[in-house]
Design goal:
Blueprint (H helix, E strand, L loop, with lengths): L10 E3 L3 E4 L6 H10 L1 H4 L12 H17 L3 E8 L5 E14 L4 E8 L8 H17 L3 E7 L3 H9 L3 E11 L5 E10 L2
Parallel strand pairs: 5-6
Antiparallel strand pairs: 1-2, 2-3, 3-4, 4-5, 6-8, 7-8
């Protein structure tokens, strides 16, 4: 199947969230959240090693948009829903990454701005994106991978119903170049 012809939802809504593809106009919200959250993101996210300028954030939003159109990566932004069901505060990012369209395997990624951590938004977004992968994109396997030391992240995977399949020792490097153990969680289509 031609990946460019694959159905990919542009927006997913939940009780409290709107999860959608990025737009260039999201740059200010993304930049503010990333800058606010640098200390929490830096140990785990290679893209969060230096504080981005507003122009860099706009460029990244445009790259995210392009990767979705090409079906190479499916990054999405998480917004809180207001009482009327409209977008409110930007909360963080999620999406489906490291896609193998032949196998129909996806990896969920996520991050949350520091001021909104601990409110269950990321777990809700991960559950919604995972459900979409299985129900609308016919996924056979959805994975979550994270640094073994990132307990907050593996708790999100566990709350979202993923099963720990193992820990790969010295599987990759941290952003500072140190060996990293990687936890792999997964859900599979029955």
């Amino acid at each position: 199947m031609e990946p460019l012809l694959e159905f990919v939802p542009e927006c997913i809504t939940t009780l409290r969230l709107i999860v959608r593809s990025a737009r260039a106009s999201d740059a200010q919200a993304v930049n503010t959240a990333v800058v606010e959250s640098m200390d929490a993101l830096r140990p785990y996210m290679p893209w969060a090693q230096t504080e981005p300028s507003l122009a860099q954030s706009e460029g990244e939003c445009r790259r995210m948009q392009a990767r979705v159109l090409l079906r190479e990566d499916l990054p999405m932004l998480i917004f809180e829903r207001d009482e009327d069901g409209h977008e409110a505060e930007f909360i963080g990012g999620t999406g489906l990454h490291r896609i193998d369209w032949t196998v129909r395997r996806f990896e969920v990624g996520y991050w949350c701005r520091s001021s909104r951590v601990g409110q269950g938004f990321v777990s809700e977004a991960v559950e919604a994106v995972t459900r979409c992968a299985f129900e609308q994109m016919q996924a056979r396997r959805v994975e979550v991978r994270m640094d073994d030391g990132n307990e907050r992240s593996w708790r999100v995977a566990e709350r979202a119903g993923f099963t720990l399949e193992g820990v790969l020792r010295s599987q990759s490097l941290t952003p500072t170049g140190e060996p990293r153990d990687t936890r792999i969680y997964a859900k599979t289509q029955l």
